[in-house]
Amino acid sequence: MLCQSLNAEFAPKGIHIAHIVIDGLIDAPDTLGKMMGLAAFEDLKQRKGYEKNGLLIPDQIADSYFHLAHQHPSAWTHELDLRPHSALPWWNHHKLDL
Q1: Domains in the chain, number
Q2: pTM metric for this prediction
């Protein structure tokens, strides 16, 4: 709602407002890897990593932000959800598979 209100106020001035949800684990050894520990993080990457599309890749997240920042005002995106296509929604499974 905040983004929609900000958009209503600032879009006529040419300011692009967007709400981005990053819904998933990010393949980031400096954050997720340190939280999980190196062995658990490497196991996760083997099970869900790049080839399996189960983790969000930082370069791909950056590409989405870059695209958003360069959109033509006639087709601005105001809400964007980023998640791996193979991820199950949190509400649709009982056990977290980290």
Answers
A1: 1
A2: 0.76
43-69 pLDDT, tens digit each: 888 888 877 788 899 999 999 999 999
What the block records as the tokens of 72 is 């033509």
CA distance 69 to 67: 5
Two tokens, residue 44 = 């996760």
Is there a contact between 51 and 89 (Cβ–Cβ < 8 Å)?
no
In a domain, 88, yes or no: yes
Which residues have CB under 8 Å from 58's CB, separation 6+?
26, 27, 28
Query: Residue 97 falls within a domain, yes or no?
Result: no
Does any domain span residue 98?
Answer: no
Where are any strands of DSSP class E within the chain? 19-22, 79-82
Dihedral sign of CA atoms 13, 21, 72, 62 in order: positive
